[in-house]
Amino acid sequence: MPERFMRASRCFATLALALTPSWAAHAQATATQAPATQIPIEHFVRADSLSGLVISPTGEYVAMTVERDDADALVVLRTSDMKPVSANNLAKGDRFVRLQWSGPDRILFSAARSKGRYAEQDDLEHWAAINADGSEFKRIWVGRGNELATVTSTIKSGYFNLLDAPGRDDGKVLVSQYVQRNDKWTEEIGEIDTFEGKLRPITRAPRLHCEVALKLDQPVLAVCPMKEGARRRKDKTDGKHDDGGEQVYRYVGPNEWSLVATYTGAAGRIALQGWSDEGHIYATHGDGRSTHAFGTLDPQTGAFTKLFQDPVSDPAYFLSTNDKRGTVIGAITEAGLPKIEVFDGEHPDAALYASLANLFPRRLVTPRSATRDGRRFLFHVGSDQSPGELYLYDRDKSLASLLMRHREWLPADRMARTRAFTSTTRDGVKVHGYLTLPHGSDGKRLPMIVSVHGGPMGVRDRWMFDTETQLLASRGYAVLRVNFRGSDGYGEAFEDQAYGQWGSGILHDIIDATQWAIDKGHADKDRICIYGGSFGGYAAMMAPTLAPDLYRCAFGYVGLYDAEIHMKKSDTAQTDEGRAYLQRALGDTPEARAAISPTKRAHLIRIPVYLAAGADDERCPPEHTIAMQKALTTAGNPPKGVIIQKGEGHGFEKPENNLRLYTEMLAFFERHIGRQPSTPPSAPPVAAPSATAP
Domains in the chain, ordered, with CATH? Predict the structure, then answer.
């Protein structure tokens, strides 16, 4: 078997033990035997090992990924007794990216070398397939920029994307492949036999970077950017994304497409969402101003028919117990708290979903994957306090069976509750966010951590269970999280406001929301610290320069602190598209980039600072943290601590390294804003705007 995917029979005993009721009872007893004591940090940093569950087309098996020994394992369980059938490990450091059944007992997966907890994992490292019992392993594709292992020699280089092709469970999958022929790139569609690894060409897409709707082994429609060579707008780190509109093509025959619809300009953003057995092609439509509408595309004309649109939030999830293969009956939005919108109340599954939701009050029920006939499906139940449970529903028996609980060593009845809030910034922007209050507190005049998410574009905070937030709250801190301008899920216009606003508008959103928490009486104004990772680390260093009297300490984690360093050393800067994006986001001149770089404003930071970074971080290289440390030291305010963690990338993954990180972080916060009011550090007046109440 190839080196990067090895059989791991030695893990059977451990895995079998982990799935037995006795182990579950032991874990629960361990977590609850001393309810008066603090839950150890170890319980929060411990990996949620069971994830990625997918039911097989016939319902005989469930495949899932298990994190162990710095790598992921693929485990297959028999649904009749939930006992392991096989277990296979990836190589150390590899993580699963995508997992799906390509036949009744055939699994296709992609895996990639992990780049860190905050890093987006792509599926351009390697693809393989294996049977449920662990036999007939087949490597299909290896390496970014390499050809399929069995593709003809006319294809010199390329990579492929798996296409959603409902109705297929014969061990074959459809892909779109970017290939270079005679120095020209084309996008071609083909069928891969996952047993033999051979590719059968089907047709050529109308142009590059199209999305293709298929049924069985035939393309139906293609949605392509109007400008030749432009990329899809959903590529968040791509400075060349297309605002010029989309064209819809109907498939006529091999290498032949007919243009049937054109969506021009900023109002022409179409993204395919799947195909149903009933013949619907689902899509979302954006106009560049409001939120995304959800609807269908006519297979003959390409006309879009709107089924649903929320005025504040893009659809976050779609409700279909057939996992995109049946009619979509509703959507879940997340402006603040999750909100369920059923727009096809006559469909029989609407009543079924309502009955399941009623069984779990104050929790969110979301269908996951289903069998080919839809008679059995998996659904997830979770909330702000519960890491979640996975159930198997049998329509024939009208029975929901609990399969497993996530992080069951964290007792839900001791977790903190999260509230949604809205506030209006100084320039009139309405932002949404979440305030988590410690379990058992009255929510008044608490020490508070402002936790800033990364991105800043295309990322967001959610109401659902967040382990880091719960850890902070377990130590007595209120936790404020803000979906500032640029955050995902509120329409493209809101997301686009992040460009050119890193050191101004976004920071004002965070600062003004902090002031909101003070004005509402939730936060003690003398005991607030700011923390974040990636862009959040950037914000943790910038906010004290704009509001010098608001925060008492700042913790920057795998952060971006110097725009020039980022333009030269980050992985984003290694492509033309990435550099174009960075120029748009950070500024197109050295002067503009210096103005938003915390390293150039270190003399304005007069509060205690702690820094942490991964030594192998490609997105925000450790040079950022070293430069920030030097700038603070030169300014007379050296950091109280610095971690440059060997073997970690953009966000720590190893439990022992996370234990060190959060032990140091909590001790840092305790020293400066702890349980008792502390004397605010003095700060000389600076020429920077102070926060104003929203």
Answer: 1-139 (2.40.128), 416-673 (3.40.50.1820)
